[in-house]
Amino acid sequence: MAGRGEGAGGFPAPASVRLASPTGRWLVLTTVLGSSMALLDSTVVNVALPRIGRDLGADLAALQWTVNAYLVTLAGLILLGGALGDRYGRRKVFVVGVVWFAAASLLCGLAPNAGVLIAARALQGVGGALLTPGSLALIQASFHPDDRGRAVGLWSGFGGIGAAVGPFLGGWLVDGPGWRWVFLLNVPLAAVCVPVALGHVPESSDGRADHGRFDALGAGLGALALALLTYALIEAREGSLVVAVTGVAGVAAAVAFVVVERRRPDPMMPLDVFRSRQFTAVNLVTLCVYAAFGGFFFLAALQLQVVAGWSALGAGTALLPTTVLMLLFSARSGALADRIGPRIPLTVGPLLCAAAMLLMLRVGADADYLTDVLPALLVMGTGMVTLVAPLTATVLASVDSARAGLASGINNAAARAAGLVAVAALPLLAGMGPEAYRSATEFDRAFDKAMVWCAGVLVLGAVVAVATVRRPVPGCARPECRRHGSVLAPPLEGRKPSESNR
Asked: Transmembrane region positions (predicted)?
């Protein structure tokens, strides 16, 4: 018979784990390890792209798919991943996600050609959609309310450190043992994470999630629409009938997704949440800023290696300031936005980032880090610090507090979708040919055009913010993740039990 405060299997009962207990420490360790796998992968792959292209004989389109195949499945399935954990057990789904992610990473590391690598990256995204929401959900469902805030802070802080280390570690691996170790590194991390989770982390689920059916059709249509539209954008330079048909099919899948979500009694993404003008407005800002961020971090790593001639380690290390600034100051930025409201930060932040994009025009063949690269990245980091925490807080505040986790999931998925569209579209808009990354002159010219596009999208985001964002009403939901280090998506917030009824 379980003792007081214990659940099944001798584990502590849900919401009773104390941070100072052995179970609390194991829980933080395993969730940090799991989420770090996904964070590391999202930051290190960009640094490895030139070497991957050279070793596998891949053109620019294949490099775009190496990034986007992962984002297609992650963005399309991340909401469903959270719901699966609520019904079947958060630890169980988290462990499945870690094992799935590690197996797909192994396949990436052993890929003999670009086609296998792209397919494995899509499988990685499925694993990421299971483990990413699951790691935070485990903490929020397991820790005692008095310790939950500190536990979330440790999780987000250590996860941010992992994101910061990612480009440096990725560059070192690419220049040393090789780019395949960027993926193979996930296997030993999973080998530590899974036994710890099974042996020391309590299971939890939401009893109210046992009824109703999952919106698998909605999730499939969403991922299909993203995949088809991404293919059409990447291959649009060919101008073939297949590309046109694929683009039309992508639009049709997107329309079908909206129809299904509107008619289902238990949709993955309830469209009525967009009745809040504030929620819709902030998601439009999210689409603008994270499209620019996704395009920037994809192209900047290539620019520093292809044009400036830096090593992978040099390029990865060069990008660290943005993440470090976010880790150090995102909590303070959120506190400032609480006092002055989100409208000014969400206007000024994108404008600072737009200025950083224009400063990147100075980065050419003879770029100096201190005078050319670092100023742009410091301005970029300052802009991201200014806007990311207020953006998350405003998303949560724009809906009923019981739906805050759902709102955060939609916002996170929107950011990732915006990034993948940017990675697909920017090379087309900038006039990059299939072999552009093999020519320093051609890539440099196209990179400058792409940075202007990114700056324009950020200015559009600032205009949307100043025209539509208002101060939240008192007493609304507030973010638990005060410190954030990912540069490619806003932080996720936990789903309340009352949200998990699908």
From this structure: 61-81, 93-112, 118-139, 151-173, 179-202, 214-234, 240-260, 281-302, 308-331, 343-361, 373-397, 409-430, 450-469
Going 404 to 408 to 414 to 418, the CA torsion angle's sign is: positive
Q: Under a CB-based contact definition with an 8 Å cutoff, are residues 490 and 415 in contact?
A: yes
pTM, whole model, 2 decimals?
Answer: 0.90
Mean of pLDDT over the chain: 87
Closest CA to 300 of 458, 174, 451: 451
- CA 161 to chain CA centroid, Å, is 15
Task: Kindly state the tokens that stand for 460.
Answer: 């559009």
Q: How far is CA 224 from each of CA 31, 126, 250, 270, rounded to the nearest angstrom?
A: 30, 13, 7, 19
Pull the structure tokens for residue 139.
């903490």
Mean per-residue pLDDT, 481-489: 74
Half-sphere exposure of 58 (CA within 13 A, CB side): 23
Give pLDDT tens digits for 301-350: 999 999 999 999 999 899 889 888 888 888 788 788 878 888 999 999 99
Between CA 109 and CA 180 the distance in angstroms is 4
pLDDT band at residue 237, thresholds of 50, 70 and 90? confident
Query: Count of alpha carbons within 13 Å of 328, Cβ hemisphere only?
Result: 9
Cβ proximity of 183 and 106 under 8 Å? yes
What is the dihedral sign for C-alpha 45, 46, 48, 50?
positive
Percent of the chain with pLDDT over 90: 50
C-alpha to C-alpha distance for 35 and 127, rounded to whole angstroms: 11
The answer to whether the beta carbons of residues 154 and 131 sit under 8 Å apart is: no
| Fold that domain 23-204 belongs to in CATH | Growth Hormone; Chain: A; (1.20.1250)
Tokens describing residue 376: 């742009």
Q: For residue range 6-60, list pLDDT tens digits in order.
A: 554 555 555 678 888 888 889 888 988 888 888 777 778 989 999 999 999 999 9
* Domain 23-204 shares a fold with domain 271-496: yes
CA 9, CA 1: separation in Å to the nearest integer? 9
Residues 322 and 486 sit within 8 Å (Cβ to Cβ): no
Closest to 323 in 3D by CA, of 130, 156, 74: 156
Measured at the alpha carbon of residue 457, what is the angle toward residues 375 and 366, in degrees to the nearest 5? 35
What integer pLDDT is reported at residue 126 of this predicted model?
Answer: 94
The yes-or-no verdict on residue 270 having pLDDT over 50 is yes
Q: How far apart are CA 465 and CA 462, in angstroms?
A: 5
The topology under which CATH files domain 271-496 is Growth Hormone; Chain: A; (1.20.1250)
Angle between helices 404-429 and 216-234 (to 10 degrees): 20
Neighbouring C-beta atoms of residue 69, cutoff 10 Å:
22
